Please model this.
Amino acid sequence: MKKKNVWLITAAICLVLGIAASLAGKVYRGRTEGIRSFDIATGDMNQSLTYDRANGVLYVGTHNGLLSAWRDGEELWQIRAEGAFRELALNESGDTLYAANESNRVCVFRTSDGEELLNLDLQRKAVGVAVNADGSRFAVITNTGSSKSNLFVFASDGTEISNIPYKGTLRGIEYCGDGETLMLSDKRGDISHIAEDGELLNQYSINYDAVQMKACAGTYWVVGKNGSYYRLDEELNCLRSGQISNTVNAIVNCIGVDAEGEYVVVGSKEGYLFVMDGQDKQIYTVDMEIQIMDTAADEGCIYLAGYGDAVWCIFAENLENIELYTLLGKLCGYLVYVFAAGFLVSLVAYIPRTRRASVKLLKNIWKQRMAYIMLLPTYVLLFLFSYRGIFTGLIRAFTDWSVNRNTVAKISFIGLDNFRTMLSEGYFLTGMINLLLLLISNIIKTLTVPLLLAWLLYSIRGGRRKYIHRFLFVLPMVVPGVVGALVWQKIYDPSIGLLNQVLGALGLESLQRVWLGDAHTAMGAVIFMGFPFVGAMALLVYYAGFNNIGNEVIESALIDGGTRRDIFWRIQLPLIRPQISLMITLTALGAMQEFNSIYILTGGGPGTATYVPALELYLNAAQFGRYGYASALGLVLLVFTMTVTIISNRLTREKE
Model:
């Protein structure tokens, strides 16, 4: 086989392996998510869950009074009530469903068809319900006000057995294995083992508000508001405890465990989900984007419900191997780069022209290897801190990358949708018009006052006087731009600002304005900021250009009868064209990227009067979390910036 064909086959193999590694990496990274949406959509705000493992039926209660039963993604039945279904419970046989409803009622349903068997008015908000194993008794806890609760115990036919007032706010209730005593949790953090008549048998304190309690395999799991959780037996011995790493300061809302009681999940009001393994090590944290309300256990998975119409499922198998999947995902990512490099090298070696050019380049690099080795650290740092971000932005500009889709498994390719959004929303087009006004005004300011002052400085006789004047003009450079913007914000203040005060002193009250709050004057105020427009950078560049003109040129012009005006327009100005072109380029680039002063003065307002694309990029990236759209804006600005730079450099070369 010819060597040329070997390179072609190698390139094909590297391409196939690279694609395979990319697909495998996506699969592994998807498994590290550990969670997926279940095939259930209630169309309402889910609030409570319970699961019948024997029959494979999931019962979902919602905030707006919908109760439904689901099996394999198919809805079996649904009923409507007036209030939110706060908690659901099943008897051991799974044929009866008990529901605590915030409309002051507890309801009992037949699970086969959803027929209502009992509807008891408690005259208090029902917040929890529990049923003993044989279904002969069920208990309900209610809350009235901020510190009053009641415990009701009923027979299976709805006959009231007891009504026990409770000092404090009850959070959770579960029946013990004997079918007669109960476990209660409250806002004080007390876990109480009591008899049906209210007699306290035992108590355990977690020292924090016990926000939820769940029964699992004869034990009781309790989570505190601080993120600590405990596993207690019926004698209230602590069998296991742990603490989530809550660096986001989320407000804990619920707890869940798998059927084996190994993995623990803790949900929060902000939507964060924390997953702990059997050794109470936090192995996974994810933002579910919606308040997590309740959980239900199954063999090998945990169901989650939040204030949305979906139900999620966390698979214990994925959690068990999440570290392995994470490692394999990273390994596949590295292999993609390796195979991509192999594909490019093989392709270059396959084409004779590129092979000869590459060999020549490698020989030159080897000849100058010490210089390249010394430059290598700089290029590595540039790639990590500059070019890597640029490449990421270029790629993510065509995706739906956002604060809610912030992992590779969640991010999707959407083509040119971000660029269509720029045109459809209108903010970008408005910003481009404002940017054009700023660009023209900034170029005019750069070509007038600094150029005139540089010529006047150059014309001053005496080096000492030149130095003093140059120092005074350049001194404002030490003042940060943010400070300057804040000073001008005070100048434009409608109440105490210098501008309105001067107009008032001159008797021109009719000209006083809310300069930054009026759409007709806001852009003019932004443009006028910095008056008298002595740009120190431009001043020094022009001054250096004038100094580079030889004295003999000026003397020759004077001998030929030239005036100072003729010398400036016909000799000096043409000779500093490179400096002028440079300042036009820098001014244009600065105008495209600058938004700090606008953000401080007006925030882009009023309305969109001072809105610019760079400000839109910042707001979408830093405040709105639309990273993909911000990357697309950055790509458009990059194209404009490079276009201006290339045109300016080409014009400069032609003039030179």
About this structure: The chain has four domains: 1-33+316-357, 43-205, 214-308, 417-655.
